[in-house]
Design a protein that fits this description.
Layout (H helix, E strand, L loop, with lengths): L3 H9 L5 H21 L2 H18 L9 H19 L34 H17 L2 H12 L4 H8 L3 H26 L1
């Protein structure tokens, strides 16, 4: 298997199958990222196509071949954000708000430790669906950081580069996103028990 650097060199040299190999390497991950970020298959496919088009047009300009993955997710995240800007904004509600006036958002939240459940395939599939739904419900600025760090495996520095943020902002958003997911998954666990 070729490294990203070797693959980029082949693309720059104009080898016929090099871009196809590039799409084979990153295509599924980009489409999955788009699905999780956009929430709709049609939007994700649009983002995927736009990302590949921009990659095809711009890969020769990538200065650091070792940063191809980071650059590619920056392009994809920018496409997702541009897609969202064209949509009507959603009304965001603070986590834990149930519609009542008497809510203490500063109160500590009990998070259930459900990590010791038996590995039942059906329960795992259901949990995976609940996790995907919980990620989709996150505010866009938290969701993109959770996806880049926890799903795509980018480092904090790489995610910061993709999003044009400082590392501390990425860490803060990641923490908030993870806490929101934990709370949602804890409520799922309480319902399942």
């Amino acid at each position: 298997m070729l490294s990203d650097e070797q693959l980029l060199r082949k693309i720059r040299d104009g080898e016929a199958d090099a871009f196809d190999a590039f799409v084979a390497r990153y295509g599924r991950r980009l489409l999955a990222f788009g699905m999780r970020m956009c929430g709709h298959r049609e939007d994700a496919e649009d983002v995927f196509q736009e990302t590949l088009l921009k990659a095809y047009q711009s890969l020769e300009a990538v200065r650091d071949p070792g940063a191809v993955r980071t650059w590619l997710f920056r392009v994809a995240s920018n496409q997702c954000l541009m897609k969202r800007r064209k949509e009507k904004p959603e009304r965001e509600v603070p986590l834990g708000y149930d519609g009542g006036d008497d809510v203490d958002f500063a109160a500590p939240i009990e998070i259930v430790d459900w990590s010791h459940r038996p590995d039942d395939e059906a329960a795992r599939a259901e949990l995976h669906a609940v996790l995907d739904a919980a990620i989709a419900e996150l505010a866009p600025d938290l969701r993109i950081v959770v996806l880049l760090r926890d799903v795509e495996g980018l480092s904090t520095k790489e995610a910061a580069e993709v999003l044009h943020l400082g590392s501390s902002a990425v860490k803060m958003r990641l923490h908030r996103g993870r806490m929101a997911l934990r709370e949602r998954l804890a409520s799922y666990h309480r319902q399942a028990v």
